[in-house]
Give the backbone structure.
Amino acid sequence: MSHPPQAPYQQPYAPVQPPYVPQQKGAGLAVASMVLGIIALLLSWVPIINNVAAVIAVVGLALGIPALLRARRGTHRGKGLAITGLVTSVIAIAVVIATQAFYASVIDEVADSLDQELGTAVPSAGALPEGGAAELVEGAPEEAPSGDLVPLGVPAQVGDYQVTVDAVELDADASVQAANDFNGPATGQYVLAQLSVTYTGDTEGMPGFDLTAVFHGSDARQYSDSECMAVLADDAMDVPTLNPGGSDTFQFCMDVPPAAVAGGQLSIEPTLSFDSDDRVFYALP
């Protein structure tokens, strides 16, 4: 008896397992690093606040480094976010360092100029006529005399402007209050100066910014118009830009303690000049 041929031996089928691919986790560190880096970059330009920005940038940097390492190993997502956080944090730190150096140099320059000004004697208050309160004095235009004090109504050169102090009101509380209902009371009392200016430069001038009025009180202190927050009827901030030869009239106010008004002095000077010789003193009523 013949037997059927036997089938060749076959190995049992074994399915091929795919290689194990670990599942990537979230990108929490990368997102936090990016958010902190952007916040630090936005705050890095602001004086004083940029000290906080530097701390935020360091934290963003500390979170971004491990986030990038995890992303490169493939265990976590967010490689692009981590890189963004690192870049913004580094830029923010660089900006903070640069702005801090700039602000420090400006403060040093201002401090040096103040020291020089304090060492410069102010013209004697005895040369001024006695002033009266709440009195508005008009002067007639004429050529400036060769003295330390320029009379009211007489033009004098201050920086790029020919400046005439038309009138000074030593107790201007009522005038300032009437100019705007939202004006609050002065800490001391308002002193109001009305100026007529002509731009003599060769480009363009903004007298409301280019000029500063300072009242030198009899208490040996200075009171600048920049410290007076009142809105005036003819406010210096409303003066238009002047071309060469352009003129306008406006007002400055100063907040001065009442006891320091009598015997005080008024000067007009370029805002960006730190040389006390550039200031011009005007006689008061």
Observations:
- Helices lie at 28-43, 49-73, 79-118, 173-179, 207-210.
- Residues 214 and 224 are 4 Å apart (CA to CA).
